[in-house]
Design a protein that fits this description.
By secondary structure, this protein is of the alpha+beta class. The protein contains 25 helices and 13 strands. The protein has a six-stranded mixed sheet with strand order 1-2-3-9-6-4, with helices on both faces. Strands 5-13-10 form a three-stranded antiparallel sheet. Helix 3 runs antiparallel to helix 4 and helix 10 runs antiparallel to helix 18. About 3% of the residues have low confidence. Bound molecules: protoporphyrin IX containing FE (HEM). The site of protoporphyrin IX containing FE has 26 residues, from helix 18, helix 19 and helix 24. Pfam families: p450 (PF00067).
Length: 565
């Protein structure tokens, strides 16, 4: 048989194989009630993104629209591309039939997303996310089942009201240091605002997590470059190199012939273990001698006992420590991973949008000035934070438009039924459900015709109160009815983000501190008008892309002039 015949037979065989699988999956999907899309390749995988990603813009031009849209859907980061294209959201969800074993359900509808998120046991976190989160050991963010319930019960209280005063005051301190650096630069002009905010977010985690406060520096990475990596430096490298560490074994990354940046990540991986083990031993020694835990995440993890390990209690023995060393390391890592980019980028997007649309600076400055007039101690967490209603509305509007975690994935191993707008839908067994946290915030019928515009006042300011310890801040009243369930940047249900209040406190402290004294303006280029400068900033913000979280592609082009008010 010549080569051509071999190839032709292989192609026919493959075609038949794919057709049969598509047919079988189509039969599974056709009575579900969802809109269907058929696609001849498995989508949404890292492999698809790597192979199909570079041809995306070509595919969007040459393929028929519905095929091109499904292709687009399979390449990582579709949410933000959709937003830039201002595309209509599809309700409630659509099911993609491919030759793969699992069906792919893409949910952009709040009602279905909430229904899935509420049923944690039936829709568990997917395997890939678990692998990423458990890179350094079993952790809250990467566990499922009873293991998750136990970790959640013990860990969520560690991020409650007890730490908020420190988050508030440390964020204020860091912001003062950052602003004094910016305003000492020529004309108060800097392209380092995004990096500066990253330093703040990292340093807050350093204080709250490990009790290691650090001075603000223009670039958190530069400042920590020493001969030998310290703990926080290893942490920075492993958090930034997260995907590489999942794809390549760390021993490979640290080989001498690897590029320096990869070597550093590989090296940091091993040193992170050593440092975290050392720190834990120290913490345990200090706990034994003082008897009282410090107000840090590490100390809480090291000292917490599991009172439900009843065998210990009944036998009158000392309570069993709740976490193994591996679990403590795993949780220290995910605590930083989950709280760093998310909060830093939310602050960066908010400030960029305030600079691009200065009318919203006027709006929050009015609120801030009022607080300064009325509150006797304008630095007090207790007195100031609950009054920052407009500033919180800015945060919510930023999260609605620049949702850091664009989607999360849940697996449905056994057939389930969900409802939306009074209609039932069947989710077949073995379906991967991709819940677009970004998409639910972008429905015209919920948010109105200006859904793609930055308008913080849509969050009716009066209702924006933080309530109770770590409870979901009441979602501010919306002009559009029923919008509460269409705002899920922190997810919802039992697995909703336990760091939400910490992120809000940090964000509000930073914004309040900055705009109490300064305004942000575009640093104009030669012959550029103010209008052009404002549009340039808006364009820099629009040039964004989800990496692990949503990020600006050109953060250093965001040149701002900080002006004393
Ligand atoms: C604006 C900032 C933040 C956003 C938008 C955000 C968003 C999210 C989202 C979407 C999830 C996934 C929930 C799910 O799978 O259903 C999550 C989980 C988590 N977040 Fe956040 N987060 C933020 C800040 C923080 C902070 C500051 C911390 C703590 C330092 C934190 C700690 C966690 C943890 C530990 C989990 C895992 C919870 C679990 O699996 O039970 N987050 N976050």
């Amino acid at each position: 048989m010549d080569l051509f015949k071999i190839f032709a037979s292989a192609a026919v065989f493959y075609f038949l194989y794919v057709s049969l699988r598509l047919y079988r999956n189509y039969m599974r999907a056709k009575t579900t009630g969802f809109k269907l899309r058929i696609f001849p390749f498995e989508i949404g995988t890292p492999l698809f993104t790597v192979i199909a990603g570079p041809f995306l813009s070509l595919a969007l031009r040459v393929f028929p629209q519905s095929f091109a849209r499904t292709y687009d859907l399979g390449v990582y980061g579709v949410e933000y591309r959709d937003r830039v294209a201002k595309r209509e959201r599809e309700t409630p969800a659509y099911l993609v039939v491919t030759p793969a074993n699992a069906l792919e359900l893409f949910v952009e509808d709040g009602e279905i997303a909430n229904a899935i998120l509420a049923r944690r046991r039936e829709f568990e976190q997917d395997n890939v996310s678990r692998k990423i989160m458990n890179n350094f050991g079993d952790s809250l963010a990467g566990s499922v089942g009873e293991g998750w319930s136990r970790q959640r019960r013990l860990i969520a209280p560690m991020l409650n009201e007890r730490i908020m005063e420190t988050v508030w005051s440390e964020s204020q301190q860091q912001t003062h240091e950052m602003m004094s650096h910016f305003t000492n630069l020529e004309n108060g002009t800097t392209n380092g605002t995004v990096t500066g905010l990253r330093t703040i977010a990292f340093n807050i985690l350093s204080t709250i997590g490990y009790g290691m406060p650090a001075k603000w520096t223009a670039d958190v990475k530069q400042a920590r470059k020493g001969e030998k990596m310290d703990f926080m430096e290893t942490l920075l490298h492993v958090v930034d190199g997260l995907i590489l560490l999942v794809v390549f074994p760390p021993w490979l990354l640290r080989q001498f012939w690897m590029p320096k940046s990869l070597r550093q990540i590989g090296e940091a991986y091993y040193q992170f273990y050593e440092h975290s083990s050392d720190m834990l031993q120290k913490e345990r020694r200090s706990l034994r001698s003082s008897g009282t835990p410090r107000n840090t995440f590490l100390s809480s993890l090291a000292s917490v006992n599991d009172h439900e390990e009843d065998a210990y209690e009944k036998e009158g023995r000392v309570n069993k420590p709740a976490f193994t060393e591996e679990q403590i390391t795993g949780n220290l890592y995910t605590f930083t991973l989950a709280g760093y980019d998310t909060t830093a980028n939310t602050m960066a997007y908010a400030i960029a949008m305030l600079a691009a649309y200065p009318q919203w600076q006027d709006w929050i400055i009015e609120e801030i000035d009022q607080i300064h007039k009325e509150v006797s101690n304008p630095n007090s967490y207790q007195n100031v934070l609950p009054r920052l209603e407009r500033c919180l509305a800015v945060m919510f509007e930023t999260l609605r438009m620049f949702t850091p975690v664009a989607h999360i994935v849940r697996e449905c191993p056994v057939e389930k039924v969900v409802t939306s707008r009074g209609k039932s839908y069947r989710i077949p067994a073995n379906t991967r459900c991709t819940l677009s946290l970004d998409g639910v915030g972008a429905h015209r019928d919920v948010w109105g015709d200006d859904v793609f515009e930055f308008r913080p006042s849509r969050w009716g300011a009066k209702a924006t109160k933080l309530t109770g310890a770590n409870s979901i801040a009441q979602v501010p009243k919306l002009e559009a009815a029923g919008a509460k369930e269409h705002f899920l940047p922190w997810s919802s249900g039992p697995r909703a983000c336990p760091g939400m209040k910490m992120a809000q406190t940090e964000f509000l402290s930073v914004i309040y501190t900055i705009f109490s004294e300064f305004r942000a303006e575009p640093a104009l280029e030669a012959e550029e008008s103010l209008e052009q400068g404002l549009s340039r900033i808006a364009a820099i913000v629009a040039d964004s892309q989800p990496k692990l979280t949503l990020q600006m592609n050109r953060p250093n082009d965001l040149k701002l002039k900080w002006v004393k008010r």
